[in-house]
Amino acid sequence: MNTELHVYTMPRIGDKAPDFEAVTTTGKLKFSEYNKESWVVLFSHPADFTPVCTTEMSGFAREKKFFEERNTKLLGLSIDSIHAHIAWVNAVHEKTGVLFEFPIIADIDMSVSRLYGMLQPGESETAAVRAVFIIDPEGKVRLIMYYPLNVGRNMEEIKRSLIALQTSDVNKCAMPLDWKPGEKVIVPAPKTIEALAERKKSDLEMVDWYLAKRSID
Length: 217
Ligand code: BEZ
Hints:
The protein is of the alpha+beta class and 217 residues long. The protein is 31% helix and 22% strand.
């Protein structure tokens, strides 16, 4: 095994998303430009012309309107050439009518995969795992998912996560287990004795003083 391959960076939640330039199916792209004033869902898949990846990419493509309505751009990646990407996009379009309109990075030198910890040698030394990075318009990594090669992701969870992050930012709240849009959210716990007294008098739905929920519009 090539031990050099084990020296990888791995962005963490709260980090500035590492910037890069890449060749993609929509042309050359600089990440920080693409991310300007927009959320980005950056996701990797192991390889073009593989079945699980085809279902996942088609799933992202079908949700174009959902992501656009939430000021969110998609950005795919795999360690394949731009020619392989173009041929796969074309083949899926011809066979199913689904067009992958979002850019897909041709990370043939693995530079972006390494930067984002998408190459995990215990799983594969040559194919990216199924990673998802949700990055906010300030360029901060807000949520990370990693799936192995043989398990496709859950589109509903990706969508739910994005809505939860955006709702949390707007309403300054946290989301409980299995939270879904329309459900009550968790109000931050009081941090002073005075705030605790106010909390006790409030009409919030309360399990205990530190676990209170409210509706949002
Ligand atoms: C797939 O997308 O079907 C796949 C890719 C790499 C390994 C296993 C499955």
